[in-house]
Specification:
Two copies of one chain form a homodimer. Chain A is mainly alpha-helical. Chain A is built from seven helices and three strands; from the N terminus they run ααβααββααα. Chain A binds a DNA duplex through helix 4.
Chain lengths: 168, 168
DNA sequence: ATAAAGTTTCAGAAAATTTTGAAAGTTCAG
DNA sequence: CTGAACTTTCAAAATTTTCTGAAACTTTAT
């Protein structure tokens, strides 16, 4: 595969992957583009490479910066803003993991906990089944949540992964 | 919290969670409903509980059955089809994990591998940066892929999680 | 065979999400 | 200040995804 083709496919695939995981296509593609760029890119560079509007670039970049996986960079003697990606895959995956767990997993875990601890549920067969399932889900999601924290939220994720690989 | 309220919130939250993770809301809500149901539900039961159309129930249920996390069940003396959820959280999460990894992660892993092994890339600074990033992503995603396999695709996931909890 | 009961399909409607583009806002050199 | 360079905003348009509902199809009891 030639460079041009590989680059195009990589950006395209990263975009598809993103949308399947609830991150929008443009955001994912901009990250992809910045990940492989050897130097900072401006809004105009990104608009041109991905053939998308200024507004779209601006909004997507803002989110990427909010997530902490893209940084603003000012080049001397140039008023334009440039952007670079966090290139350490462990660092940015930690950040994505943190944001997504916080936003998406935690509310569910809290609801499950609250329901699981409710004293008002438990008499009829229907309510018993409900309580039982909620307790199981609660136990499961707390465990997964803990693992996610250890893997993605602590700086030891990489080490942990290596240990798992070594021992299992 | 009272049962009615808890049930409603659970189904609602499960739906939101589903859509954030790329599973559609209705599918997630039907699974939630079946998870806590003490007996099999018919298409009509689901339509009524979730206030959605027959077509929607039919399509969503088909997917859930395809994924292997909901089963058809026929009740004696009744022509209607009934449905029950796989209630073992480990079993259904294995299945969801398998389907999603296969569909969503594997294509990316394969592309990264292919690019990483390509001999045609590597001269200019741009191409070097590209190759370097692809190699890192490849290493990372293969590791995460392996972990996902061990956690979700093998029947030892639960044990593995306990071990991790114990030792780390 | 027929008709009632139940299931599936899918074109179009509705809803949700994403993107555009132009106007408003900001910054800064002169 | 002023205006050129650049960034941000956001209403409306485009696109994508989901849902509906009615017709077609299948199954089964009589």
């Amino acid at each position: 595969m030639k460079y041009g083709e590989a680059k195009e496919k990589f950006i395209e695939t990263w975009g598809v992957l993103g949308s399947q995981w609830g991150i929008n296509k443009t955001m994912a593609q901009i990250q992809a583009l910045l990940l492989i760029a050897p130097k900072p890119l401006s809004t105009d560079d990104i608009m041109e490479e991905l053939a998308i509007s200024r507004g779209n670039v601006n909004m997507s970049i803002r989110q990427l910066v909010d997530w902490g996986i893209v940084y603003k960079k000012n080049l001397a003697g140039d008023r334009k803003e440039y952007f670079i990606a966090e290139k350490d895959v462990w660092k940015w995956s930690h950040k994505v993991g943190a944001v997504r767990k916080q936003r998406e997993l935690n509310p569910a875990i809290e609801l499950l906990k609250e329901i699981a601890n409710s004293k008002e549920i438990g008499k009829t067969e229907e309510e018993k089944e409900f309580a039982k399932q909620i307790k199981e889900l609660n136990a499961f999601s707390s465990q997964i949540g803990d693992l996610a924290d250890k893997l993605f939220l602590s700086p030891r994720g990489e080490l942990l992964l290596k240990l798992i690989k070594m021992f299992l």
